[in-house]
TrEMBL record:
It comes from hydrocarbon metagenome. Residues 171-229 form the TiaS-like TCKD domain. Residues 1-23 are annotated as: Disordered. Gene3D superfamilies: 3.30.70.2200. InterPro entries: Methan_mark_11, TiaS-like_TCKD. This is Ob-fold nucleic acid binding domain protein.
Length: 323
């Protein structure tokens, strides 16, 4: 497998393309017509480096769903799920030889490695699966460097990509609007987009339905925005500064969780979805680190939103009492 950081071509296609693919033609496909470049690939790891979540932002949903169908057959892959325009794979570090077979098991993730600064992911496939494993992922946004094989036709091909090792940061927000103006869900999203840069990738936005307390604006929801970042403190500070600048409420709450898995906060989250909760029941730091950043009345909803990130059905459910 050769290091091909600058070579984006796909072997076997140059010199045999139809005239319509000629450079300069008004009907030409930009770039290589046999490669679909992933817009971005991001990886986060837990503190111990024992589990990785690989987040692949895709341009072609068919290819992404095909990968989701086949990749979980690898022993490296614990689970796979679709979240909006991304596919997420939870991985165990290690390497394995995959017994690839056409149609039955044509591609997979064959390796995942973590060190202090980087995460390396190895893919392999045959036929079109090799194109996805090599050409399509090697030059995705967010890739630091890659090693890849020539791909195309029926051959076997693979690649290893190196990504920055990032941490998950979940920022919960509640109570930024008034009965006359504003909306927390839009403000949180726009702030999240604004703070996104090379060191911080905005991954998801989840609206969380809370118990309709008497002092709500109208719908009683809070928001959790998910990020992958190498600089958690900088991200949280920038988000806070913009939230303080644009909020319309004196009761705004903002909480930030830095860590791989916020599930220890789920019991509190469900309490706030099922009824009015006193402030003194707010949890302390769990697995990872929970920071109460802005401690207005909305802090209860802000913390409650965090464990529901990307759990959209549960997040949006409205408690109507026990069955």
């Amino acid at each position: 497998m050769a290091d091909q950081e600058m070579n984006r071509g796909i072997a076997g296609t140059t010199g045999s393309r139809p005239a319509g693919f000629a450079a300069g033609s008004p009907d030409a496909i930009p770039g290589d017509p046999y490669v679909i470049r992933y817009p971005g690939i991001v990886a986060v790891a837990d503190e111990q480096g024992t589990v990785i979540e690989l987040v692949e932002f895709f341009d072609c949903i068919g290819g992404a769903m095909w990968s989701r169908h086949h990749y979980p057959r690898s022993p490296v892959v614990r689970s796979a799920r679709n979240v909006g325009s991304s596919m997420r794979y939870v991985l165990s570090p290690g390497r394995t030889d995959l017994d690839l077979q056409g149609s039955k098991f044509p591609a997979g993730i064959c390796g995942a490695e973590v060190d202090d600064r980087e995460i390396a992911i190895s893919y392999i496939g045959i036929g079109g699966g090799g194109v996805g494993a090599s050409g399509c992922r090697s030059f995705a946004g967010g890739v630091l460097r890659c090693q890849n094989d020539p791909c195309g036709g029926g051959r076997q091909a693979g690649s290893t990509i190196w990504l920055p090792r990032r941490q998950r940061v979940l920022i919960g927000v509640d109570d930024t609007d008034t009965p006359e103006e504003g909306a927390t869900w839009t403000l949180a999203h726009n702030i999240a987009r604004t703070v996104e840069d090379e060191d911080c990738r905005y991954l998801s936005h989840t609206i969380v339905q809370l118990y309709p307390v008497a002092y709500r604006t109208k719908n009683c929801v809070s928001i959790v925005c998910e990020f992958a970042t190498s600089e958690p403190h900088r991200l949280i500070t920038r988000f806070r500064n913009l939230l303080e600048k644009y909020t319309l409420s004196d009761d705004t709450g903002m909480a930030a969780f830095t860590g791989f898995d916020p599930s220890l906060l789920l019991p509190f989250g469900w309490m706030v979805k099922k009824g009015e909760v006193r402030r003194d029941l707010l949890p302390g730091s769990g697995q990872g680190q929970l920071d109460l950043v802005l401690e207005g009345r909305g802090i209860i909803g802000a913390v409650a939103a965090i464990p529901f990130y990307t759990r959209f059905e549960e997040a949006l459910s409205l408690w109507t009492g026990p069955d």
